[in-house]
Every structure is written in C-alpha cells, then in structure tokens.
C-alpha cells in the first residue's frame, strides 16, 4: 500500500481549511492588526536578511506550514541531501553540490570515499590555470598571451557563470593581466559569430563547458570556433610551426564530467577540468564549471563565494525549521502556490549587477521542480513549481509592473537588494551621487512592495478614485536584503535558493535533480534536422511541421 500523498495528510488538510478562512483577509489588515509584524516574520543568516512579513499569512499559518514540513520529513531530507545519500532517485545518485563548497579541513565520506580531497584537488588545478592566465603566461599558438576567453556552454554550463561574473565584476583582482571573459550559448551561433567578428584568434581561447559533453548547442558552437581558429591560425602561420595540435592545446579548455569525450574531441588532457556525475548541471557553478568566474574575480574571491554558500549550507543544516531561511522561503512559496492559488512568481533584483539572476533562477527552479510525478511514480494532484520569471526591478517597473498592480493575476514577488553600495568609491563627489542613486533604487524597491501590499491605501487621498486608478494591493512578496553584494553574500544567496527548491521538492514529493522533460524535444529535433537536411523522409510528419519545413525549403530554393 503506497503512503498517502502529501495533500491527503493531516497537515495539508488543516492548511486547506485555514486557507479558506485566510483568503478573504487583505494584507493591509494583517499589518494593521499586528504591530511588530516585520520583526516577527524577519530572519537573518549568512549576510542576508529575509523579510517575509508581506506574505499573506499570520503566525498560525506559519505554525501549520512548519507542521507540513515536519510531516513531509523535511529535516530528514536535509540530512540525507547533505550526507550524500542517493536523493536523485531516477538517476540513482547523490546530489552533492554542497560538497563542492566544503572547506579543506572538513571531510565528507560518501559510500566509502572522502570527497573533500578530490574537490580541493580540482580547485588547486583551477587555481594553477587562473594564475597562468593572470600572469599573461597562457599563450596562444603563435606565442601571444591570451586576452579573451569565450565560454561555450548552455543551461547550467552558462547561466551560473554568466550571472556570477556579471554580479561580481567589481571584484576583479588588481595588477593582473586582464582577461575579457565572454559567453556564447545559443545554438544558432549568433553570439559566437559576433565574437568571431571582433576577437583576435591569436589571443582567444575557448572554454568548452558541458557536463555531458554531448549537448548539440555547445558542440556546434565549438566546431565553428575550432574551424575559425584553424583557418585563421594555420592558414597564415603554417611555416612558423603552428599545427592543429598546438592550436587545440593552446586555445581550448574542457570542463566536463566526461574526460573520455573531452579527449575524443581533442582537448589536451592537461587542459581538462573534470567533475563528477553527482554534480547537477544547474548546481555546478561551484566547481570546474566556475572557471570563467575565477578568471574574472580571481581565486580568492571564488573561494569567498564558496565560503558564503557553505555558510548557508551550515545554516540550512543547523537552524531550526522556524528560523531556517531556505525552509521559510520554500514554505511561503508552498502557501502561495498550493493554498492561495498564486502560480506566478516574479524575481525582481534592485541592483544592476544582478541582471542575470532571474534568468539563472528560471532554470534552477523550473528545471528542478517543473515536475508532476512523485518519487514513486504517481501523478501529483496538486500544483508544483509556479511560472517564474523576472528582470531588474527598476526596469520591470516600466515594463510589466502594470500587470502586478492592476492585472487579473496574483503574483508572488521576490525583491532583492543590497543595503549599502558605492560607499567605497574613491572620488567623494561621484560617491555621493552614486550613493544617492542607490538610495533612490531602494526607495523604489520598498515603495513597490508597499503598494503591492496595500494598494490604494498606501496613499492618503481625499475623495474616491476613478476605477481605472484603483490598486487592489494584496499581492504577496518577500524582501531579501544583502548586507552588501560581495562574493560571500552572493554565494549564500544562490545557496539559499538551491535549498529552497529542495525543500519545496521534498514537500511535493518530486525529484528536483533530474530533467527528463527536456529529452524528447532533443530527440525530435534530431529527427527534424535530418528531414530539413533532406536525409530523412518527410512523409511521417504532422501537417503543421511539414508545412513549416516546406516553407523553409521553398525559401532556400529562392
Ligand atoms: O537540456 C537540459 C540540460 O541538460 C541542463 O540540465 C544542463 O544544464 C544543460 O542542458 C547543459 O548540459 P551540459 O552541461 O551537459 O552541456
């Protein structure tokens, strides 16, 4: 007899009954009836302050959600995750991104092996590579120092490094040979083509970043890059002893869990950084896949990023559920999705350095928890991951906030900002202006969450408003303040969301560490490509796809 699904259990049922009472309660009322609500629903850990007071809940709601977490065995699941048990059940392996940020003096023995020495051996190899670049000693085939590195990867092999390098661009080490780090992910080659038109092949190196080393998007970009290098470097310099082997060795690095495939592709063994199957793609920026990050910020800052994430791991492991940031953030989401029917979630950073944070979280959350089958293979009868999207809050104010304020959808919002910025700018006049701009940004951040909460009541006005100026408010939000944006607080912010995703998956009884939903599309794309290339028969195609393919053929014929 399978165990009852979570929505059939007592804690869920009690929450459903409680939600029926809470649905008609406006957030504004919750505030006017409970002084001290901010303090009651705010927690701090690892350089982050999480204010959950603008969620549509009260003490009793949180008590009941914590009971749900206990009923779903969240504490046991946290322990199993961090201990390296095989929590990724469909692929029968652990999910050990947390091991990548353990300090060297710790140990984590999983299935008889201590993983920490191998993790730090990889970091040491990374450090050696980074040092070579920063000393101007990594030379291309013609002997010139490498100045530009292009990361070719997609999904987890792109979004994490792209997001972090952008967020920490202020942390470039001083006095080192500067390396421009760029990212090309799209299979259509448009980003890559742009780089190839601007970069000098003699001083450009490509990092092939792919856990599987089979991803067609990355491999097709890699082939184009290889042909470009060969044509440009060998054509002109053949007589100077530049051969294909030298080009491959000096212009490519491979980051993958498959050393065999890197080797087959022609990556020199000493220029490979391998990692482990137990690191999920979207959880992989903490190790080898983080090489572009280390190239931008240096190894010390990269290690500070790991330390920040580790501080959040410790908090996740040790704090009681009622003070545990990832658990509380997860429970707020569960309350909105499963009990208030709010199935849209917007991520709104108020700091330009976090430009790619929403894109990063879209993969982390939706690829992890966009699932509808439980661990034991039953269809869930409740909603799981909401539709999650976002962009920089100040820009989104001029784009989609209209819908947040007056649309028909309820949306949960996460507002994210550092408390302080620019106080270290050397020139006092510029510093004052920039600090003022940061305060302006914070004012907007706080104003938006207040208007979303209170609606019209955020402002005292005489007389009634016309209906088209009505703001109903009652939109729930969380506000996350970073003490300041540093490698360490960014590490803990990312780890916070990783663990939030895990807690939600535990309650929904789904596996956040696989992504079978993306496989069929890849297979059908391969078949479709063969038809487009006239290598397979179009007869079996559905009518729409056949029509589209024929439109392309007809355009190609001119
Ligand atoms: O297709 C989805 C996916 O497998 C993601 O999970 C992953 O991050 C991305 O593709 C890239 O995969 P790889 O690192 O193996 O190239």
Question: How are the secondary structure elements laid out?
Answer:
Blueprint: H1 10-22, H2 27-32, H3 37-40, E1 42-45, E2 48-51, H4 59-71, H5 74-83, E3 109-110, E4 113-114, H6 116-134, E5 148-152, H7 159-167, E6 180-184, H8 190-198, E7 204-209, H9 216-237, H10 244-251, E8 252-256, H11 259-265, E9 272-274, H12 291-318, H13 325-339, E10 344-349, H14 357-369, E11 387-390, H15 393-396, H16 401-406, E12 412-418, H17 428-454, E13 477-482, H18 487-508, H19 519-532, H20 543-557
Parallel strand pairs: 5-6, 5-7, 7-8, 8-9, 10-11, 10-12, 12-13
Antiparallel strand pairs: 1-2, 2-13, 3-4
Helix pairs in contact: 1-4, 4-13, 6-12, 7-12, 7-14, 9-10, 12-18, 13-18, 14-18
Bound molecules: 6-O-phosphono-beta-D-fructofuranose (F6P).
Task: Describe this protein's structure.
By secondary structure, the chain is of the alpha/beta class. It has a 6-stranded mixed sheet, with helices on both faces. A 5-stranded parallel sheet has the order 6-5-7-8-9, with helices on both faces. A two-stranded antiparallel ribbon has the order 3-4. It has helices spanning 10-22, 27-32, 37-40, 59-71, 74-83, 116-134, 159-167, 190-198, 216-237, 244-251, 259-265, 291-318, 325-339, 357-369, 393-396, 401-406, 428-454, 487-508, 519-532, 543-557; strands at residues 42-45, 48-51, 109-110, 113-114, 148-152, 180-184, 204-209, 252-256, 272-274, 344-349, 387-390, 412-418, 477-482. Strand 12, helix 17 and strand 13 (477-482) form a beta-alpha-beta unit. The chain is built from 20 helices and 13 strands. It binds 6-O-phosphono-beta-D-fructofuranose. 6-O-phosphono-beta-D-fructofuranose (F6P) binds next to loops. This is Glucose-6-phosphate isomerase.
């Amino acid at each position: 007899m399978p165990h009852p699904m979570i929505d059939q259990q007592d804690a869920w049922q009690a929450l459903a009954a409680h939600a029926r009472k809470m649905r008609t309660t406006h957030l504004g009322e919750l505030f006017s009836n409970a002084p001290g609500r901010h303090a009651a629903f705010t927690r701090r850990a690892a350089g982050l302050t999480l204010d959950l007071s603008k969620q549509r809940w009260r003490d009793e709601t949180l008590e009941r959600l914590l009971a749900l977490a206990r009923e779903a065995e969240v504490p046991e699941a946290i322990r199993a995750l961090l201990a390296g048990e095989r929590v990724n059940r469909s692929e029968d392996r652990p999910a050990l991104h947390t091991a990548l940020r353990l300090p060297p003096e710790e140990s984590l023995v999983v299935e008889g092996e201590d993983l920490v020495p191998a993790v730090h051996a990889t970091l040491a190899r990374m450090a050696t590579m980074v040092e070579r670049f920063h000393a101007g000693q990594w030379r291309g085939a013609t002997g010139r120092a490498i100045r530009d590195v292009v990361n070719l990867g997609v999904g987890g092999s792109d979004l994490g490094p792209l997001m972090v390098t952008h967020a920490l661009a202020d942390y470039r080490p001083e006095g080192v040979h500067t390396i421009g780090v760029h990212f090309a992910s799209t299979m259509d080659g448009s980003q890559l083509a742009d780089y190839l038109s601007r970069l000098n092949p003699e001083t450009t190196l490509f990092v092939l970043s792919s856990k599987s080393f089979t991803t067609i998007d990355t491999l097709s970009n890699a082939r184009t890059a290889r042909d470009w290098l060969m044509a440009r470097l060998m054509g002109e310099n053949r007589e100077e002893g530049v051969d294909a082997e030298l080009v491959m060795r000096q212009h490519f690095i491979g980051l993958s869990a498959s050393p065999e495939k890197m080797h087959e592709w022609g990556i020199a063994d000493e220029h490979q950084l391998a990692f482990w199957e137990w690191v999920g793609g979207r959880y992989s920026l903490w190790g080898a896949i983080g090489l572009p990050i280390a190239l931008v910020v240096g190894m010390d800052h990269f290690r500070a990023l790991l330390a920040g994430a580790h501080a959040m791991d410790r908090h996740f492991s040790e704090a009681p559920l009622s003070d545990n940031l990832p658990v509380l953030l997860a429970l707020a989401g569960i309350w909105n999705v499963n009990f208030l029917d709010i199935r849209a979630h917007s991520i709104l950073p108020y700091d330009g350095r976090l430009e790619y944070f929403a894109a990063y979280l879209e993969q982390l959350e939706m690829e992890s928890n966009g699932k509808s089958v439980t661990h034991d293979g039953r269809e869930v009868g409740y909603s799981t991951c909401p539709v999650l999207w976002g962009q920089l809050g100040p820009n989104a104010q001029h784009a989609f906030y209209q819908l947040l304020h007056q649309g028909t959808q309820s949306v949960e919002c996460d507002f994210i900002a550092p408390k302080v910025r620019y106080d270290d700018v050397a020139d006092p006049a510029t510093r004052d202006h920039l600090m003022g701009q940061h305060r302006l940004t914070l004012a907007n951040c706080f104003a938006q969450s207040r208007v979303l909460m209170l609606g019209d009541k955020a402002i005292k006005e005489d007389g009634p408003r016309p209906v088209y100026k009505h703001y109903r408010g009652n939109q729930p939000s969380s506000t996350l303040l970073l003490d300041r944006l540093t490698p360490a607080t960014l590490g803990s912010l990312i780890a916070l969301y990783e663990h939030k995703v895990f807690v939600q998956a535990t309650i929904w009884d789904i596996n956040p560490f696989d992504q079978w939903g993306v496989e069929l599309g890849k297979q059908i794309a391969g078949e479709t490509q063969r038809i487009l290339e006239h290598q397979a028969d179009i007869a079996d195609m559905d009518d729409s796809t056949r029509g589209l393919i024929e439109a392309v053929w007809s355009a190609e014929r001119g």
